[in-house]
Amino acid sequence: MSRKEKNTAGILAGLLAGAAAGVILGMLYAPEEGKETRKKIKNKANDLKDQAKNKYGEVSEKVKDQYGNISSTFKETANNVAHTMKDGYDKYKDQIVSKTADVVKDVEAELNDLKK
């Protein structure tokens, strides 16, 4: 996970925790019956849990998508580099073989001239 995503996740977790604490404190100090307050706290906790699950799912999907994109881009780039290197190798190999054959012919010709 990138630094920006970690910061975003941290801020999101802090906001959710702060909201939960604020809701709980507000309910505890509200002039209601204890049973009703506990029910509201339970409902609000369930709502916050669902929101956190949803947000986690969204962030998780984004990370998976980005990983998939980066992975496919890397594979494509690696394949392009491999093909380019192979093409260059084949090109220069053929040139070297050709030059070597020319040099061998020249050397043989020189040897033949020296033998005469």
Automatic annotation (TrEMBL):
UniProt xrefs under Gene3D superfamilies: Apolipoprotein
Residue stretches spanning the membrane: 12-30
Coiled coil: none
InterPro entries (UniProt xref): Desiccation-related_membrane (IPR052928), RRF_sf (IPR036191), YtxH (IPR024623)
A family per Pfam: YtxH
Alphabetical keyword list: Membrane, Transmembrane, Transmembrane helix
Claim: Cell wall biogenesis/degradation is one of the keywords in the record: no
Domain of life (superkingdom): Bacteria
UniProt name for this protein: Gas vesicle protein
Record organism: Chryseobacterium rhizosphaerae
